[in-house]
Each structure stands twice: as structure tokens, then as C-alpha cells.
Specification:
It contains 21 helices and 14 strands. By secondary structure, the chain is an alpha/beta fold. The longest helix has 34 residues. The protein starts with a helix and ends in a 21-residue tail after the last helix. The N terminus is likely disordered.
Length: 523
Amino acid sequence: QISVMEHRAVDLEEEIPPRPTYEDSDPLWTKKNGPKQQRRNMIFMLVLAVIFTCIVLGIMIPLVVRIQKVPESVIIMIGDGFGPASVTMARVCANRTLNLDKIMVGTVITRSASSDVTDSAAGATAYSCGKKSFNGGIAVDADGNPCGTVLEAAKKIGKSVGVVATSRVTHATPAAFSSHSVNRDYEEFIAAQQIEKDIDIIFGGGLKFFTNRTDGINLLDRAREKGYKILLTRSDLQGMDTSSGKYLGLFAWDHLEYSIDRNRTGLDQPTLLEMSEKALQLLSMNKKGYMLMIEGSRIDMAGHNNDAAGELGDILAYDDTIGFVQNWVNTHDSTLMISTADHETGGLTLGRNSPGPIYPPYTWDYAKINEISCSTYLMATYIVTDSKVFNESAVVPVMMDCAKMTVNQNITDQFSSVVAPLISIPSISVGAVRERLAREIGNYIGQQTYIGWTTWGHTGVDVNLYADGWNSGTIRGNYDNTRIGEIVAEVLEVDVTSITQELKSFQPCPQLDSQGRCFWFPH
């Protein structure tokens, strides 16, 4: 006898058939084609599909990009003489974060081929040609041979090009993008080249080198023959047609006014921002892209005069333009903005020794700087007459009106003693006398505000580098100045070397001696 449970176990054994082996099953049910293998096969096929898709996309996407992408454009902005200490001064005086502060990406080494302290000509040539030049050289290499510029190369492939400056357009920086000369002082020679380069926009000052020339040629007539429309005032600029055409805007006989002086002089001159806005509106009409150089030129000239307030005014005007261009590059495809300086000017320090043996305070008086309403050059213009006479009685009221500073007879005598030797020399111009006085006034203001200056010239410090817009994330670190020129050429996809080859027969010197040698002296 068996128990009920045992009987039930026997029944279960009879009810549950043995599990079939692969060999006993359907022929398709094999070890090579089982459930696990089927899953493996499915995964394998998915991987193949992904790889195939990636290969196809890898081929097609570049083709689509090449067909549909917007041609690259570059806006290179140069704050002439704009050093790191000047950035701090502007930020503190303005009591705000600068537009520049948001896009700082590195620093730039500024030395030239001939000196560890560059001038603007060699500094700008590094940016325009991607090559070192000697101080004074305009778009020529260290041997004095013309080098192709990014502006010329961009024009050659059909892009629109332009230069905007608050200096004379023949001055070192705009000249280095638009001409070639072994000497930056050959400004008539530079002006004649600029007209022939077919540059779409030329905005700045320097009318005298186009109309009051030693060769008697009126280059405005030649410009009109070349298809240029001439603009001479801010009102002309505001009325320009930005849909097409070429424009030569010469808004001052010499340099444009310092920003700080505009309200006092009342001249009908456009601002850097206004010129830049019109230039971009016109250049951006070209579907092949464009290249624009914008220079805040007068930052440098205020630095040469050790003029803190004058420099501040033009720095803030430059920063306003930076803000506009930032917005522009972030709302226009494939447009890169780079901003830097060619060098630092003046050796500005925010802190200075006290007169005598007193230990200096750890401060500088930005509030007094903010009270100043004239450049030191304009103050000097009020004091030294057009007939080159030092007007002693003007010193006290001018210093009070422009600088809100009370000066005594000792300061008046100090100013007089500086310019008296220059006034007595017939060959010294009234402008040179005023510049010397402007520097003395700048030094006096520096003493009162604890701002120091080490030179009337340039210094060799690295300058700040800023970038925004298309592909700006790849620009980081410390660069030699020539690398900036190379980056611009790479982004624009232009060949400056071919332009250099084309320029081999060009003589970048208007004056040769009896032996056919050029009057140029690297220094």
C-alpha cells in the first residue's frame, strides 16, 4: 500500500512530461538559434544599424553644413594703448561691471621684431598680417617687405571689408590693415593706397591727408571716381544708405575729439558706436561675409598725455561699442568678435607715492577723476593761445572749470616753466606746446588723485584678450600677438600668403635715395 501523498506524487510525475532537449524539438530550435542567441542577434543588428547611421551622418552632415552654413565674419576690435590697469580704473570709476569683463579669455604678448616695447604700427601689423614687424612698419615684415593682410585677403574672396577708428584713418592701426609702408609717418602715401584698395567702409578722421596734400591731389575726387560716397559730418553718417555702396567717412581734419570733450566742442562728429553700427549694417548685407576692424584710438593718446579722465571717457565709449558688438555677434550666425590692445600706454598705476617723505596711502581718488570734464589737451588749448602764447591768467579758472581743482601761483609758474622753452623755438608748433602742457597738467592731476604714470610712451606689459560669438570658446590663454592675426585668417578661411606673393613687386616706400634705397630707419 502507498499513502495518499505518495500516490499524488506518482500522478504528478505522470502529468508533467520531461523537458524536451534541443535535439528533440523543432529543427529551428537549436543551440545556435535559441532565445539567448536570438537576443544576441537582435543586439548585434541594432549595433550595426547605429554604426551605419553614424557613418551616413558623418558623411552627410559636413555636406549639409558646407551647403547651408553662413560664411564666417570677423570683427576685430583694438583699444589702442588699453592696458590692464586702465580696465580697473574704468570699472571703478563707472561703478559697474564692464561689458569687456564678461568676455575676457586671455592675454596677449605685445613685443615687436625690433623691441620688447612695441609701437602701434608693429602691433597692428601683427594683427593684420600675423607677422612681426619693426616699430614704425605698416603691414611690412621685419625686412621691410609688404605682407598680405587679412583685410586684403578677405576682399579677394568676395567678403566686404572696413576700418573704423577715432584717429586719422591714416594713423598706424587702421593703416596697417589697409596699406603698406615702411614708415608710419608717410600718411599721404597711406591715404593714396587706401582709396585704391576697394575697401567698403573707411570711417575716422584725417581729412587733411586727402585734401591738403603736398602733391596737390585731392583724393576725394579720386575716391568719387572709385565709386565712394563721401561723408564729412555726423549728420552725413546718420543719413547714409546702409543697403549698398562704398563709403569714405572723414569726420575730422585730424583726429576725432576725445569723448570727454564732445559736449564742450560741439563738433558734428559721430561716436565710435555710431560709426561701428552703420559699418556693420552695410557690411552684413554681403552674403559672403565680412571683416571689420574697429579701433578706440584715442585711449592711447590720452595715455600719452597721462590724462586719466580723458582716457576714461574713451574707454567707456569703447566699452559701449563692445556691448553693441557683443549683441551683434550673438544674434548673427558665424560671426566672431575679438577685442584686444596693441600695447599699453603711459604705465598707469592706481596708487602713487605722496609728495615728500610721507608714506603713501593705500588708495586712489576715483571720485575726483569722475569730476573732471575736459581732457588735459583741451585744458592746454584754453591756456596756450593759437598764437603760441601762454595765458597765465587762464590757468586758475580753467583748472577750476575743467578739473574742479584750486591751484595757486606756484602751479601756474610750474606750468609756465615747462612750456616757456618750447614757445621760444619757432619750429615748435602750437600743438606740440599744448601737448607738453597737457602732460604736465596730467601729472598734477595724478598727484592730487594718487594715480601714477611711468612714461609718456608705451610699456611692454601683456594686454587683455576678449572674445565672443561664433567659435570664441576655442580662444583661451596667453598668445603672441601674431597668433591673433593667424586666428582671424583661419576663421575667415583666407590666404594671406597669396596676397603677400602678389605684393612682391610693390614698393612700400614713396621716397628713395639716389641709390634706390628707401628712407626708413627701424627704431
